[in-house]
Fold:
Amino acid sequence: MITRITSHDQRYDLAPGEGADAVHTNPQYAYAVCLLHDDSGLRGTGLAFTLGGGNALVCQAIDILAGALVRRDIEELMAEWGTVYQQLANHHQLRWLGPHKGVVHLALAAITNACFDLWAKWRGVPLWRLLLDLSPAQIVALLDLRYLEDVLPATRALELINAAQASRPERMGVIASGYPGYDTSVGWFHYDEQQVRENAKRALAAGFGAIKLKVGARDPNYDLRRAAAVREAVGDQTTVMLDANQQWTLPQALEMCQALQHINPLWVEEPTHPDDILAHQTIAQAIAPVKVAAGEHVPNAIVFKNYLQLGAMHYVQADCVRVGGISEFITISLLAR
Structure:
């Protein structure tokens, strides 16, 4: 049984230039941490990610929202998590501050992740193993599918999960090998041409086959020079992605994406404001075959649904410490199928 809940404001300073992009120029990596303590001595830990300022507000929201979980048994709680999640997300007063976005939703992410962590510890298995051991019906019971019924009713979610069961053995090798990764530290926004060139070569030597460059400077030539330096450093066979971190307006995005096409990027990430779904659709149509990636600042599954319905994103970058935790991440993954 959960006996008490605490939160913790954890922050990490970065070296000059690290983590910077065109919008977030001086970040501090921070986590709003939710800790669930149970009567057996176990502790579930859940995180939500911020850039420092406002992290304490998320912790305050955790303290308010998570109180409803005290005296709940973790197995009983998770058996109906989809319903519990909906109740927490629709808090009779805090919902007004969203709904389903911002500080309150980040708090829900940390709470959700802490519940999943405590559940896995209670069963004595890693979280990935716990999720694989659940039946399709148990997975669907974890999800809040409200406002998604037009494209993902519970019956459709169940069909998608059941259909993937047969091919699971073919995918299990990833447990040992891991997923392919790319190096985003190559091209932080404040790194000049020489530094991104050297970083790119270092990433290749370390075994990376893909790298990402931050763009979105007020001086377009700054972006063009750095992009050309990266492509020159890594050659034509290495995958390069660009990330504007929402800096461009729609006209700027169309102009800059056209100007940067010569380096053949796999995708352009967050080319404009994340709430402007129609602008993303316009960009996606205009820059093809280059793809649009987005999701880091898309707050919930409902907005992801709209992006996908309009063909406004190709790479779905949902993050379980930014949306409403692991269960909403699973929901978004099913929407993307």
